[in-house]
Amino acid sequence: MNDYRIDKKGLFNEIAAWDGLFKKKVQIIACGGTAMTLLDIKESTKDIDFMVPKQNEFDYLIKVLQQAGYYQGQSGGWQRDAGFRIDFFTGNKIHTTELMESPLQKNNHLLIKQYGYIYLGILNYYDLIISKLFRGSTVDFQDCLLLFRKKREEININVLKTRFHKTSSFDISEDKVNKHLDSFLRMLNEDGLKNG
After folding, report:
1. Distance (Å, whole) CA 38 – CA 175
2. Given a cut of 80, is residue 192 above it in pLDDT?
3. Nearest CA to 15 among 120, 93, 98, 95?
4. What is the pTM of this model?
C-alpha cells in the first residue's frame, strides 16, 4: 500500500504545475481529504479528490494531464509517478454520493485560489459532511467531527439534517446513510457540540 501523503503546500504546487499546462479555464472543487487539508483541518491527505462539475472541462483536464504523463491506475484514479492518486468526479457526484445541486451554484463552494486558468474551490461544509457520512468509514466520521469542531459557528445542525435527508431520499441506501447521520449526531452530543 502507498504511504505517500500530500500537504497543503504540495496541493498548491501540484495545481500550479497543472495551471502552467492549461490554455482554457477549468473549475475544480476540492472534496474529501483534499478539502480537509486545504481547510487546515488535516495536515495532509493520502490522495487528491476533486470534483470537476462541467463535463467539457473534465474532458479537457484529463486530456492535458494525459499529455503530461498522467495515467489511470488499476484501481481507478490518476497518477504520474509512484506518488499520490488523484480522483476526479464529474457533475454533482462524489464516489457514489449524488449531491442535490452543482457545487458551482452560489453558496455551494468556497473559493480558495484563482490561478491563471484553474479556479480552485472547496465544497461547502454541508455537502462535505454529507459525502463523508454517506461513505461512513471511521476516518470519515472522525473527519466530520474535526470539521464540525473547527467550523461549528458556520454549520447549522438543522440545515445539515434537512440537506442530508433531502440528499439521502434519492439514494438507494437511504436507511443505511440515515443511520450514519444519527450516529454522527450522537457523536456531536457526546462531544458537547450539538447546537440544534
Report:
1. 32
2. no
3. 120
4. 0.91
